[in-house]
């Protein structure tokens, strides 16, 4: 399985064959995305969830979506050590997926890695994003259930709103709930969710769960909320819609990566000369884009 | 100018004409990207820099790259109010650029908005990213000079490393440097930069500047570091290389957005039926991507 995921990361030529073979075996796993600012306790929450799901006899996989910084080795290693209690459990699989610089980035590697884990028969796949940005938020939001984690004093709700992660949460967690300011964070969050739901009205009452993940406090309530959401997705028909959107973005990412590869060479779609010409102001950027499109579609340039 | 940037955000049909007209007028502005976790003081730093650059007689524009959450109106409004001291200054221009859900996202809207401001003759354009993720980091990293801001007790260097923002910094700022733990953050950061530079050896000695942006402390040192970096870029020939990469990603984003639009209809590149078929496991994802590619390039599907 680890080798299959490495094929995904490398964009290996055998991937199409592998994915064709796996296609019929998916759709069983509950895919749960976890996101939140650095320092709120995403890894600790992930570790607590692994323990809780294992106690319930479920097989659990974790994908840590890693911006793949050359600096990040140490930090992610720390997370792995924290999860080492599960290292010898054959029904737990933990893996970082590097994505920076990848053709298509997060949107290329993550859904295909998910597909591998799903086909391998895991009951739960947790997708933990390391950064909090547009791509990470989109990856987390394309899970079956998206968990947004906050902590008191980490900048609170307003900062979460700025990071754009409030509207994607199906379940909210206020972690480190034994700290000062937890009540305020919960209150502020409930208020903002209410404001958001007025517009959305999706038929799911978004819960806010308090946890102290390092002690396992609140984990049973979190698992219950996740299970309830999975149940609601199935009953309401939203599960299929979400998975269709996930498939759509996956198809698009693969098609775009393939387009880049076909035209490419070392330069990708755009040659040094063309980029320099735009950078110097000799060619305008749309004319350059038309030239590239002409090569992609095999036509001459057109307006 | 505000209207031109709205055209960019909307992906207006007149954009190619506008960009062709602007092409010869760019290349003057010093483009400075600012990134860092929520709560470190990016907006306050931006405000301090505006004041400092204005005191030096320079015209300053700010692009706040906004994930465009429906929740974020209030938060960004707060930032705007903080910058209101410059509201009546005709040589300061501040604008949020929405991007979520946009064809091509941040990589489509931001460089074109930059192009507008550059052509308009601003001496300095500050690009402040709101989230900290792959896309935001890429946008900030494509500036001429990239500033990474941290604050003591916000999770510090290790968290920054996890967010993948350490290796992109040309200048580092430890803001809120009057707080406990500032010395440790500076030390840790210097250590991590040293580790990184061993591998990179780019001929630029990455400075770490202490600031208390809310009081303007350290702002002169920051401006000096930014100016020194701009000078080094020009002397070393790196400026042209960076701007070529910026142009390259801009051309690519426009070409890809246009491909989506051409194939599109409401569904974009991928129809509901095709996405559902993949989601159900009836079609594998690479076969679906080949089908999409066939339509893009006007050929039949091929292996």
UniProtKB/TrEMBL annotation, chains A, B:
Q: Which Pfam families match?
A: MeaB
Q: Which UniProt keywords apply?
A: Chaperone, GTP-binding, Hydrolase, Nucleotide-binding
Residue ranges of the AAA+ ATPase domain? 28-255
- Could you state a single Gene Ontology molecular function term? GTP binding
Q: Which family does it belong to?
A: Belongs to the SIMIBI class G3E GTPase family. ArgK/MeaB subfamily.
This chain belongs to which protein, by name? Answer: Transporter
- Natural source organism: Knoellia aerolata DSM 18566
